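Why should sequence recovery work at all? Because a backbone constrains its sequence more than one might expect. Tight turns favour small or flexible residues, buried strands favour hydrophobic ones, and helices have their own preferences. The token representation captures these environments compactly. In the example below, the structure is given first.
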């Protein structure tokens, strides 16, 4: 799956120094789909500025003026970004691809053979191409319910606990009249014992 937060460590450069102007001023990762504030000229990722803007106040997080977007960063910035070569986010899974900035999203979203997915039974990360085979042989992780002490598959533990709590609640409501009458009996006998 495509990872929009591109860490500097994934960028392959000749100088080992990445130009500061290619870093988003909000998330401090490589700019992705850069936007620029028309008032203060600060560059930021599209997703970052969208997170910062609220429906009531569309203020730039830097100059605090109404955010007016220049839709495209300067051609110089776009050219610098286009020249970046970036290691695939799935390199830890075995992908050796180093891609131009402009092809990264396509590769990481659709083409990479090393995209992984979490198994819903054991929560292990498995390559997407192997997920069906894995799920056929997967042994689920069993977790002990803290309420009833039963062993439950991890994927069902939350719904199981909800059911357990509901059962306990129903039992308490069911037994409430007898508990109240028992408490009244104790109080009456306690006062009786005190006076005798």
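From this structural description, the recovered sequence reads:
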């Amino acid at each position: 799956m495509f990872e929009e937060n591109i860490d500097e460590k994934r960028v392959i450069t000749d100088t080992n120094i990445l130009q500061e102007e290619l870093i988003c001023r909000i998330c401090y990762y490589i700019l992705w789909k850069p936007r620029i504030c028309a008032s203060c000229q600060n560059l930021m990722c599209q997703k970052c500025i969208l997170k910062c803007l609220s429906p009531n106040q569309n203020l730039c997080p830097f100059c605090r003026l109404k955010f007016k977007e220049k839709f495209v960063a300067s051609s110089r910035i776009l050219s610098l970004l286009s020249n970046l070569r970036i290691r695939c986010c799935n390199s830890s899974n075995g992908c050796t691809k180093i891609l131009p900035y402009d092809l990264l999203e396509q590769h990481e979203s659709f083409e990479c053979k090393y995209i992984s997915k979490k198994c819903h039974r054991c929560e292990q990360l498995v390559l997407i191409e192997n997920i069906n085979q894995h799920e056929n042989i997967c042994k689920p992780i069993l977790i002990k319910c803290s309420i009833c002490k039963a062993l439950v598959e991890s994927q069902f533990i939350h719904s199981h606990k909800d059911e357990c709590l509901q059962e306990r609640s129903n039992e308490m409501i069911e037994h409430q009249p007898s508990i109240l009458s028992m408490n009244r009996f104790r109080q009456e006998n306690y006062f009786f014992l005190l006076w005798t």
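A few observations help interpret the result. The two ends are 79 Å apart (CA to CA).
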